[in-house]
């Protein structure tokens, strides 16, 4: 059974970043909308190679997510299906699905706008502000996530990612990787 604390984290991710149209479930259109939002943030147009790469990556994530989480095979993933899938992940995070690893890498690369192999506070908070989160709160979340350091590397991010989905400790730095400073 998922604790209330972990459920709040999982639903934050579901509602802010996956259910882009606010329908209460996730489908392919949500991923298409996310690609448009990300491309707008980066200044990419529909015909650009980076736009196509972003859309292709997100649609692969959708295909993987749907194949694992869409328990009733209706073409949508509900919040309950989402929480159940991540609960299964939490029991053995070392056996993540390919799409989960792909999404982790995608998020890191999205946040690493300078492409220097690390995320800084400005890169991090800009991404989360583009998804409607408060930029100041995202800066505070980054400080907690980075444990006071100026940046977070890819290896560090991978560990923080796992921690987000499994920890029950409200002060664990991984809780803050999706721009929220408290739950």
Structure in words:
This protein has helices at about 5-20, 30-40, 50-70, 80-90, 100-110, 120-130, 135-145, 155-165, and strands at about 25, 75-80, 120, 150-155. The chain is mostly helical. It has a two-stranded antiparallel sheet with strand order 1-2. α3 packs antiparallel against α5 and α6 (about 120-130) packs across α7. The longest helix is centred in the first third of the chain and has 21 residues, at about 50-70. It is globular, with a radius of gyration of 15 Å.
Write the layout of secondary structure elements.
Elements: H1 4-18, E1 25-26, H2 28-42, H3 49-69, E2 77-78, H4 79-91, H5 98-111, E3 118-120, H6 121-130, H7 135-145, E4 151-153, H8 154-166
Antiparallel strand pairs: 1-2, 3-4
